[in-house]
Amino acid sequence: MRNKQNQRRGARAQSSFELLITLSLGLAILLPMVVIAFIQLSNANVSISAIQAQQSASKLASIVSLVGAEGYPAKQFVELQMPPGVEDIYIGTKSNSVGHSITFELRAPNGASYVTQYTSVNVSGNLGGITGQGTYIVNVSAQLNCPSDPSLPCVYMTPVS
Fold first, then answer.
1. Residue 99 and residue 90: Cα distance in Å, rounded?
2. pLDDT reported for residue 75
3. Of 113, 90, 105, the residue nearest 42 (C-alpha)
4. Rounded to whole angstroms, how far apart are CA atoms 22 and 69?
5. Residue 4: half-sphere exposure toward Cβ, Cα within 13 Å
6. DSSP for 54-84?
7. Could you say which residues of the chain have pLDDT below 50?
């Protein structure tokens, strides 16, 4: 009788051990797939943010060209959709002085990523305060004397509070 009970216990233990081995192998195969999926999802989110930032920069550059062509005292208010992951926005140059570019700095898993749109007119401003995700209104106005460099005319951008 004891011999049969020991055999049953041994058979149950062997079944449990086989099940444990099977589950362990399944997890060992599934875990890398889950990690790869999360990495791909993160890269996709960065790509979507970069595309949205490119659209916003392009929209700003178009309005800047229009306002710049009209000259002083032309002004236009623009509704901007800010994507997630924007760290900073540089207007003109990285120090926000007069230049010819609008640059969005994006946070990415492997460091900063930049989206730049160039303009044909002098541009300056400070949009660093609107980096959070959402919709913002920006005042784009032609200036005879640029606030960041009074010796030059420019198109100046500021957020509307």
1. 10
2. 92
3. 113
4. 71
5. 1
6. HHHHHHHHHHHHHHHHH-TT-EEEEEEEEPT
7. none
